[in-house]
Amino acid sequence: MPSRELEYPKQPYSTVKRLNDRARYSLETIHGIINSSPFLNVAFQDSTSPFPAVLPMIGQMGSFSRPSADLGDVLDLYLHGYVSSRLMSLSRSSSSSSSEEGTPLTITATLLDGYVLSLTPNSHSYNYRSAILFGFAVPVTDPAEKLWAMELVTNSVVPSRYQNTRTPPNNAEMQSTSILRVKIKAGSAKIRSGEPHDERGDMNNQEIREKTWVGVVPAWMQFGEPVAGGYNQAEEVPGYLESWRVEGNEERRREAYEAVKEGGKGKKGEGDK
Q1: Phi/psi of residue 186, nearest 5 degrees
Q2: pLDDT of 202-231, one tens digit each?
Q3: Cis link prior to 50 (omega < 30° from 0)?
Q4: Whole-number Å distance between alpha carbons of 217 and 195
Q5: Could you give all domains of the chain from N- to C-terminal order, each with its CATH number?
Q6: Going by C-beta distance under 8 Å and a sequence separation of 6 or more, which residues neighbour residue 152?
Q7: What is the pLDDT of residues 32-89, one digit of tens each?
Q8: 3-state class of 72 per DSSP?
Q9: What are the start and end residues of every segment in region (Disordered) (predicted)?
Q10: Cβ-proximal residues to 165 (8 Å cutoff; 6+ apart), any chain
Q11: In DSSP terms, which residues pair with 55 in a beta bridge?
């Protein structure tokens, strides 16, 4: 853990403008949101298309040179994908040019904690935690780093899964998989928590208040009971998998209910969106 809380520098493209009291620039906060998201939205510009491309991808923050680095440390983002995908091919082309830092990417993640129901549709909102990162991606070419990143990403999906499967990947698997290392230049988070906030005029309307229920419906991603595959021969669900499922469900449930109470985070005051 660093001796002081590190923050990403505020750049024109990364600074939160609207409802900026909800903004966070802490590395620990941003990295935590990124690493808790089951997938990331990765945006890039392909010169062959007039439109920006956005792909859902699996990724994880980490440091190959400092594997034990904390979430509050400076970290890289590792993205996993198929070798011939458009983004991977574009990144290989960019990395071959000495004038390029890599392929510019914008990465976002959002975690939903609740539906915030107010007196009027215009004041409805969500309790949420969102993060955005800006960086340059290059393909990982070192075999040791690539193997480390594949383990990192696999275990970010289900902890200890890598160690409880057939590993290491064979040559065909290594050749068909690409890993991108994204050096982060800037980032920010935006967090909303607490109860509904309505305009003073609606709050003074007793008729509206008496007929309209207001409050928060907590929300979280829930893992169901594992269903064995048709060719499964393991006798029971392994303990590491069941612990991850049960503990993860409880942690996300707790976070959703805690978000209802934390009205001080990003509170706008009157009205809300």
Answers
A1: -160, 165
A2: 999 999 999 999 999 999 999 999 999 999
A3: no
A4: 10
A5: 20-261 (2.30.110.10)
A6: 60, 62, 78
A7: 999 999 999 999 999 889 999 999 999 999 999 999 999 999 999 999 999 999 999 9
A8: coil
A9: 248-273
A10: 154
A11: 42
